Amino acid sequence: MSQQTIAFIGTGNMSYAIIGGMVKNGFAKEQIIATNRNQEKLAKVAADFGVRTTADNIEALQQADIIVLSVKPQMMAELAQSFIAAGVDFSNKVFISVAAGITVKRLQEMLGHPVKMVRCMPNTPSLLGRGVSGLYAEGTSEEENQFIEAVFNSTGLVVWVDKEEQINDIIAVTGSSPAYFFLFMEAIEQKAIELGFNAEQARALVQQTALGAAEMALSQTDISIAQLRANVTSKGGTTHAAVEHLKANGLVENVSGAMDACIARAQEMEQEI
Ligand SMILES: NC(=O)C1=CN([C@@H]2O[C@H](COP(=O)(O)OP(=O)(O)OC[C@H]3O[C@@H](n4cnc5c(N)ncnc54)[C@H](OP(=O)(O)O)[C@@H]3O)[C@@H](O)[C@H]2O)C=CC1
Ligand SMILES: O=C(O)[C@@H]1CCC=N1
Fold this sequence. Notes:
ProC C-terminal domain-like fold
Protein backbone atom coordinates (compact mmCIF):
# COMPACT_ATOMS: atom_id res chain seq x y z
CA MET A 1 0.00 0.00 0.00
CA SER A 2 2.86 2.41 0.76
CA GLN A 3 3.90 2.50 -2.94
CA GLN A 4 0.44 3.65 -4.02
CA THR A 5 0.17 6.57 -6.43
CA ILE A 6 -2.16 9.34 -5.38
CA ALA A 7 -3.61 11.85 -7.85
CA PHE A 8 -5.08 15.20 -6.84
CA ILE A 9 -7.68 16.27 -9.38
CA GLY A 10 -8.08 20.06 -9.30
CA THR A 11 -5.03 21.28 -7.43
CA GLY A 12 -6.16 24.60 -5.98
CA ASN A 13 -5.86 25.96 -2.44
CA MET A 14 -6.76 22.77 -0.61
CA SER A 15 -4.82 20.19 -2.62
CA TYR A 16 -1.81 22.50 -2.72
CA ALA A 17 -1.86 22.54 1.09
CA ILE A 18 -2.22 18.73 1.38
CA ILE A 19 0.51 18.05 -1.20
CA GLY A 20 2.79 20.52 0.60
CA GLY A 21 2.18 18.76 3.90
CA MET A 22 2.81 15.32 2.35
CA VAL A 23 6.06 16.30 0.64
CA LYS A 24 7.42 18.12 3.69
CA ASN A 25 6.62 15.04 5.76
CA GLY A 26 8.39 12.40 3.72
CA PHE A 27 5.99 11.18 1.02
CA ALA A 28 7.85 10.45 -2.24
CA LYS A 29 7.25 13.14 -4.87
CA GLU A 30 7.02 10.41 -7.52
CA GLN A 31 3.99 9.00 -5.69
CA ILE A 32 2.02 12.22 -6.16
CA ILE A 33 0.32 13.53 -9.33
CA ALA A 34 -1.32 16.97 -9.37
CA THR A 35 -3.76 18.08 -12.07
CA ASN A 36 -5.28 21.43 -12.93
CA ARG A 37 -6.76 23.02 -16.02
CA ASN A 38 -4.67 26.09 -15.21
CA GLN A 39 -1.02 25.73 -16.33
CA GLU A 40 0.24 28.49 -14.02
CA LYS A 41 -1.10 26.68 -10.95
CA LEU A 42 0.49 23.43 -12.16
CA ALA A 43 3.83 25.17 -12.70
CA LYS A 44 3.70 26.50 -9.14
CA VAL A 45 2.94 23.14 -7.52
CA ALA A 46 5.71 21.51 -9.61
CA ALA A 47 8.21 24.23 -8.70
CA ASP A 48 7.30 24.30 -5.01
CA PHE A 49 7.06 20.57 -4.35
CA GLY A 50 8.59 18.71 -7.32
CA VAL A 51 5.56 16.44 -7.78
CA ARG A 52 4.37 15.11 -11.14
CA THR A 53 1.84 17.41 -12.83
CA THR A 54 -0.51 17.12 -15.79
CA ALA A 55 -3.44 19.03 -17.25
CA ASP A 56 -4.91 15.68 -18.30
CA ASN A 57 -7.23 14.37 -15.57
CA ILE A 58 -7.76 11.08 -17.37
CA GLU A 59 -4.04 10.35 -17.55
CA ALA A 60 -3.87 10.95 -13.77
CA LEU A 61 -6.96 8.78 -13.22
CA GLN A 62 -5.37 5.93 -15.18
CA GLN A 63 -2.03 6.11 -13.38
CA ALA A 64 -3.22 6.53 -9.79
CA ASP A 65 -4.52 4.04 -7.25
CA ILE A 66 -6.04 6.75 -5.08
CA ILE A 67 -7.88 9.71 -6.60
CA VAL A 68 -8.45 12.85 -4.52
CA LEU A 69 -11.41 14.80 -5.91
CA SER A 70 -10.62 18.40 -5.06
CA VAL A 71 -12.61 20.64 -7.38
CA LYS A 72 -15.32 22.98 -6.10
CA PRO A 73 -18.50 21.05 -5.22
CA GLN A 74 -20.43 22.65 -8.09
CA MET A 75 -17.87 21.28 -10.59
CA MET A 76 -17.87 17.70 -9.30
CA ALA A 77 -20.66 16.30 -11.51
CA GLU A 78 -19.00 17.55 -14.69
CA LEU A 79 -15.66 16.09 -13.59
CA ALA A 80 -17.24 12.70 -12.81
CA GLN A 81 -18.97 12.73 -16.18
CA SER A 82 -15.61 13.22 -17.91
CA PHE A 83 -14.25 10.14 -16.06
CA ILE A 84 -17.17 8.03 -17.25
CA ALA A 85 -16.90 9.35 -20.81
CA ALA A 86 -13.19 8.42 -20.96
CA GLY A 87 -14.14 4.74 -20.55
CA VAL A 88 -11.42 4.04 -17.94
CA ASP A 89 -12.17 1.21 -15.49
CA PHE A 90 -11.93 2.99 -12.15
CA SER A 91 -14.27 0.68 -10.27
CA ASN A 92 -11.44 -0.67 -8.06
CA LYS A 93 -9.73 2.59 -7.31
CA VAL A 94 -10.13 4.39 -4.00
CA PHE A 95 -11.65 7.86 -4.23
CA ILE A 96 -11.20 10.56 -1.60
CA SER A 97 -13.50 13.56 -1.85
CA VAL A 98 -12.54 16.70 0.03
CA ALA A 99 -15.63 18.52 -1.23
CA ALA A 100 -18.02 20.04 1.27
CA GLY A 101 -21.71 19.20 0.88
CA ILE A 102 -21.62 16.13 -1.38
CA THR A 103 -22.51 12.77 0.19
CA VAL A 104 -20.88 9.43 -0.61
CA LYS A 105 -24.17 8.28 -2.16
CA ARG A 106 -24.27 11.29 -4.47
CA LEU A 107 -20.58 10.95 -5.40
CA GLN A 108 -21.16 7.29 -6.29
CA GLU A 109 -24.17 8.27 -8.39
CA MET A 110 -22.05 10.85 -10.21
CA LEU A 111 -19.32 8.26 -10.88
CA GLY A 112 -21.89 5.64 -11.90
CA HIS A 113 -20.30 2.97 -9.63
CA PRO A 114 -20.44 2.05 -5.93
CA VAL A 115 -16.72 2.92 -5.73
CA LYS A 116 -14.70 2.83 -2.51
CA MET A 117 -15.08 6.32 -1.16
CA VAL A 118 -13.53 8.32 1.67
CA ARG A 119 -14.91 11.72 2.59
CA CYS A 120 -12.16 13.91 3.95
CA MET A 121 -12.61 17.34 5.46
CA PRO A 122 -9.16 18.90 5.72
CA ASN A 123 -8.18 22.51 6.36
CA THR A 124 -5.57 24.81 4.82
CA PRO A 125 -3.05 24.74 7.74
CA SER A 126 -2.29 21.24 6.36
CA LEU A 127 0.35 23.05 4.31
CA LEU A 128 2.38 23.55 7.48
CA GLY A 129 1.67 20.13 8.97
CA ARG A 130 -0.72 21.93 11.35
CA GLY A 131 -3.93 20.80 9.67
CA VAL A 132 -6.91 18.85 10.94
CA SER A 133 -8.64 16.27 8.72
CA GLY A 134 -11.91 14.53 9.47
CA LEU A 135 -12.24 11.17 7.68
CA TYR A 136 -15.24 8.97 6.93
CA ALA A 137 -14.93 5.81 4.83
CA GLU A 138 -17.31 3.54 2.92
CA GLY A 139 -16.22 0.28 1.27
CA THR A 140 -12.48 0.62 1.93
CA SER A 141 -10.26 -2.04 3.54
CA GLU A 142 -8.39 -1.60 6.82
CA GLU A 143 -5.11 -1.42 4.84
CA GLU A 144 -6.50 1.30 2.57
CA ASN A 145 -7.75 3.27 5.57
CA GLN A 146 -4.32 3.00 7.20
CA PHE A 147 -2.63 4.40 4.09
CA ILE A 148 -5.15 7.25 3.84
CA GLU A 149 -4.69 8.00 7.54
CA ALA A 150 -0.91 8.16 6.97
CA VAL A 151 -1.43 10.61 4.09
CA PHE A 152 -3.48 12.98 6.22
CA ASN A 153 -1.37 12.39 9.36
CA SER A 154 1.48 13.89 7.36
CA THR A 155 -0.54 17.12 7.21
CA GLY A 156 -1.58 17.26 10.89
CA LEU A 157 -4.18 15.75 13.17
CA VAL A 158 -6.62 13.10 11.89
CA VAL A 159 -10.00 12.22 13.36
CA TRP A 160 -12.22 9.40 12.01
CA VAL A 161 -15.97 9.83 12.28
CA ASP A 162 -18.46 6.93 12.31
CA LYS A 163 -21.38 8.76 10.76
CA GLU A 164 -21.19 10.67 7.51
CA GLU A 165 -23.23 13.60 8.81
CA GLN A 166 -20.44 14.30 11.32
CA ILE A 167 -18.34 15.50 8.38
CA ASN A 168 -20.57 18.59 8.36
CA ASP A 169 -19.76 19.18 12.04
CA ILE A 170 -16.05 18.86 11.21
CA ILE A 171 -16.50 21.54 8.53
CA ALA A 172 -17.84 23.94 11.17
CA VAL A 173 -15.22 23.06 13.80
CA THR A 174 -12.04 22.80 11.70
CA GLY A 175 -12.63 22.99 7.90
CA SER A 176 -14.01 26.52 7.80
CA SER A 177 -12.73 27.73 11.16
CA PRO A 178 -9.30 28.98 10.03
CA ALA A 179 -11.36 31.72 8.34
CA TYR A 180 -13.00 32.64 11.68
CA PHE A 181 -9.56 33.08 13.24
CA PHE A 182 -8.35 35.08 10.21
CA LEU A 183 -11.41 37.35 10.48
CA PHE A 184 -10.61 38.00 14.12
CA MET A 185 -7.00 38.74 13.17
CA GLU A 186 -8.15 41.04 10.36
CA ALA A 187 -10.32 42.98 12.80
CA ILE A 188 -7.42 43.50 15.23
CA GLU A 189 -5.08 44.40 12.35
CA GLN A 190 -7.57 46.95 11.01
CA LYS A 191 -8.01 48.58 14.41
CA ALA A 192 -4.24 48.69 14.96
CA ILE A 193 -3.93 50.65 11.70
CA GLU A 194 -6.70 53.01 12.82
CA LEU A 195 -4.74 53.54 16.05
CA GLY A 196 -1.74 54.68 14.00
CA PHE A 197 0.46 51.61 13.50
CA ASN A 198 1.65 51.17 9.93
CA ALA A 199 0.43 48.17 7.93
CA GLU A 200 3.66 46.23 8.41
CA GLN A 201 3.65 46.79 12.16
CA ALA A 202 -0.05 45.94 12.46
CA ARG A 203 0.44 42.66 10.60
CA ALA A 204 3.50 41.75 12.67
CA LEU A 205 1.75 42.54 15.96
CA VAL A 206 -1.40 40.56 15.20
CA GLN A 207 0.32 37.48 13.76
CA GLN A 208 2.80 37.24 16.62
CA THR A 209 0.02 37.54 19.20
CA ALA A 210 -2.14 34.90 17.46
CA LEU A 211 0.84 32.56 17.25
CA GLY A 212 1.73 33.16 20.89
CA ALA A 213 -1.83 32.51 22.06
CA ALA A 214 -2.10 29.31 19.96
CA GLU A 215 1.27 28.06 21.17
CA MET A 216 0.31 28.70 24.78
CA ALA A 217 -2.85 26.61 24.31
CA LEU A 218 -0.84 23.88 22.56
CA SER A 219 1.96 23.70 25.08
CA GLN A 220 -0.13 23.92 28.25
CA THR A 221 -2.91 21.41 27.72
CA ASP A 222 -3.26 20.95 31.48
CA ILE A 223 -4.62 24.50 31.65
CA SER A 224 -8.07 25.08 30.16
CA ILE A 225 -8.43 27.65 27.40
CA ALA A 226 -10.81 29.57 29.69
CA GLN A 227 -8.07 29.68 32.36
CA LEU A 228 -5.48 30.90 29.82
CA ARG A 229 -7.90 33.74 29.06
CA ALA A 230 -8.43 34.39 32.78
CA ASN A 231 -4.64 34.62 33.23
CA VAL A 232 -4.57 37.63 30.89
CA THR A 233 -7.60 39.23 32.53
CA SER A 234 -6.64 41.28 35.60
CA LYS A 235 -9.52 42.08 37.92
CA GLY A 236 -10.93 45.49 37.01
CA GLY A 237 -8.28 45.84 34.32
CA THR A 238 -8.13 46.51 30.58
CA THR A 239 -8.65 42.95 29.27
CA HIS A 240 -11.72 42.60 31.46
CA ALA A 241 -13.18 45.72 29.85
CA ALA A 242 -12.47 44.35 26.34
CA VAL A 243 -13.72 40.82 27.01
CA GLU A 244 -16.90 42.03 28.70
CA HIS A 245 -17.58 44.25 25.66
CA LEU A 246 -17.15 41.25 23.33
CA LYS A 247 -19.41 39.06 25.48
CA ALA A 248 -22.08 41.73 25.91
CA ASN A 249 -22.15 42.15 22.14
CA GLY A 250 -22.80 38.48 21.60
CA LEU A 251 -19.43 37.11 20.52
CA VAL A 252 -20.06 33.64 21.98
CA GLU A 253 -23.61 33.37 20.56
CA ASN A 254 -22.35 34.73 17.27
CA VAL A 255 -19.67 32.06 16.96
CA SER A 256 -22.21 29.38 17.79
CA GLY A 257 -24.63 30.83 15.23
CA ALA A 258 -21.87 31.00 12.61
CA MET A 259 -21.06 27.33 13.12
CA ASP A 260 -24.75 26.42 12.85
CA ALA A 261 -24.89 28.43 9.60
CA CYS A 262 -21.88 26.51 8.32
CA ILE A 263 -23.52 23.14 9.02
CA ALA A 264 -26.85 24.30 7.58
CA ARG A 265 -25.09 25.40 4.36
CA ALA A 266 -23.36 22.02 4.04
CA GLN A 267 -26.76 20.30 4.45
CA GLU A 268 -28.31 22.64 1.90
CA MET A 269 -25.50 21.90 -0.58
CA GLU A 270 -26.23 18.17 -0.15
CA GLN A 271 -29.70 18.86 -1.57
CA GLU A 272 -28.51 21.20 -4.35
CA ILE A 273 -25.58 19.24 -5.82
N1 LIG B 1 -10.17 25.81 0.81
C1 LIG B 1 -10.45 25.20 1.95
O1 LIG B 1 -10.12 25.69 3.05
C2 LIG B 1 -11.14 23.88 1.94
C3 LIG B 1 -11.70 23.36 0.80
N2 LIG B 1 -12.33 22.14 0.82
C4 LIG B 1 -12.89 21.59 -0.41
O2 LIG B 1 -11.83 21.47 -1.33
C5 LIG B 1 -12.34 21.58 -2.65
C6 LIG B 1 -11.46 22.54 -3.42
O3 LIG B 1 -11.49 23.79 -2.79
P1 LIG B 1 -10.34 24.86 -3.04
O4 LIG B 1 -9.02 24.16 -3.15
O5 LIG B 1 -10.52 25.92 -2.04
O6 LIG B 1 -10.79 25.38 -4.49
P2 LIG B 1 -9.91 25.93 -5.68
O7 LIG B 1 -10.84 26.58 -6.63
O8 LIG B 1 -8.76 26.72 -5.12
O9 LIG B 1 -9.30 24.61 -6.34
C7 LIG B 1 -9.89 23.85 -7.32
C8 LIG B 1 -9.01 23.92 -8.56
O10 LIG B 1 -9.47 22.95 -9.48
C9 LIG B 1 -9.45 23.54 -10.77
N3 LIG B 1 -10.42 22.81 -11.59
C10 LIG B 1 -11.76 22.97 -11.66
N4 LIG B 1 -12.31 22.07 -12.50
C11 LIG B 1 -11.28 21.33 -12.97
C12 LIG B 1 -11.19 20.24 -13.86
N5 LIG B 1 -12.28 19.72 -14.45
N6 LIG B 1 -9.98 19.72 -14.10
C13 LIG B 1 -8.86 20.21 -13.52
N7 LIG B 1 -8.88 21.25 -12.66
C14 LIG B 1 -10.07 21.79 -12.39
C15 LIG B 1 -9.83 24.95 -10.56
O11 LIG B 1 -9.45 25.73 -11.65
P3 LIG B 1 -9.99 27.24 -11.81
O12 LIG B 1 -9.11 28.05 -10.91
O13 LIG B 1 -9.77 27.51 -13.26
O14 LIG B 1 -11.43 27.22 -11.40
C16 LIG B 1 -9.06 25.28 -9.28
O15 LIG B 1 -7.75 25.71 -9.54
C17 LIG B 1 -13.78 22.06 -2.55
O16 LIG B 1 -14.62 21.01 -2.91
C18 LIG B 1 -13.94 22.46 -1.09
O17 LIG B 1 -15.23 22.15 -0.61
C19 LIG B 1 -12.38 21.38 1.95
C20 LIG B 1 -11.83 21.82 3.09
C21 LIG B 1 -11.20 23.13 3.22
O1 LIG C 1 -15.95 27.21 2.23
C1 LIG C 1 -16.06 26.04 1.85
O2 LIG C 1 -17.14 25.64 1.36
C2 LIG C 1 -14.88 25.12 1.99
C3 LIG C 1 -15.18 23.93 2.87
C4 LIG C 1 -14.44 24.18 4.15
C5 LIG C 1 -13.58 25.33 3.86
N1 LIG C 1 -13.79 25.79 2.66
